[in-house]
Amino acid sequence: MQAVKRFIKKNFGQWVYSRQCNPIQKNNIESWVEQLQQKPIENLSDASFDVFTYHGEDGILFYLANKLPNVSPTFIDIGAGDCIKSNCANLAVHHGWQGVFIDKSSEQLAVGKSFFKHQINKGADIRFIQTEVTRENVNRLMTGNLINNKVGILSIDIDGNDFWIWKAIEQVQPEIVVIEAKVEFGLKSIAVPYGNHNHHSVDSKYNGASVEALRQLGLTKGYKLVGANKQGYNLFFVKQNSPLPEVATASVLDNEETSSSFYSEIFFASHKFEIV
């Protein structure tokens, strides 16, 4: 079934996503963010708006990119999947952003290459890299594939070593970082140890890092946590000198559905974690 879906998206992507690709979506999200700029929002998730994303990331990222000064319209998306249901697709399709999609699946990237061929044919610098990102190769990938030597947004979503990949990055300082957390780890400051093959194992619950662990990591790298999507699993960081207010881990997880997903103490006692 997945192969059939990929075939359809690869060959008929512009038709499948015709609503999302309609230029009216550009006007819709721009109008939405313009309204938000008129008055302070209580939570970053209030900026949620979906064009290609599932849980408001398009609106949040576009809001941040317009709220912060001098954000380069460039991105690096690690764990891009098919590059369509991506944190960066809306920016590339509707707002002229350029950047790099990275994923270990050649089949997934083939879908993205087909989908973005119209932008590329018009001169957009959109690149695709098929590789598994590791602590050892991530800096080479970053520095070898920068657009205009800048990164406006770095997105990391690989369902595993996300914490360790961000920690390893030394060569670039994106203006905005969006990274996936394991909200099921609750308020603990823990990360699953780095593992080969992205630490995927027979235990699908055992991967990733908690919100607090990522918040602490952000601080060491000069970033502050400014919010998350409503479910709390996609975290948004900006540089410490940004005028946006920092938020606490507890506020990110202050959602009944999210808190009900926390793992029991039995789970934590039976697995090894790095304390951050």
Distance between the termini: 40 Å
Shape: globular
Helix content: 25-40%
Q: Which radius of gyration do the C-alpha atoms yield?
A: 18 Å
- Give the uncertain stretches in residue-range form: none
Task: Provide a count of the helices.
Answer: 13
Seen as an oligomer or otherwise, the chain set is single chain
Any overview of this molecule?
- The mean pLDDT is 92.
- The protein is built from 13 helices and nine strands.
- By secondary structure, the chain is an alpha/beta fold.
- The chain is globular and about 55 Å long.
- Helices cover 37% and strands 15% of the residues.
Keywords:
276 residues, alpha/beta, seven-stranded mixed beta sheet, 9 strands
Map the helices and strands.
Blueprint lengths: L1 H15 L1 H4 L2 H14 L19 H11 L6 E5 L10 H6 L3 E6 L2 H10 L1 H5 L4 E5 L7 H7 L8 E4 L5 H7 L7 E5 L9 E2 L19 H10 L2 E6 L5 E6 L9 H4 L3 H4 L5 H5 L4 E2 L1
Parallel strand pairs: 1-2, 1-4, 2-3, 4-5
Antiparallel strand pairs: 5-8, 6-9, 7-8
Helix pairs in contact: 1-6, 3-4
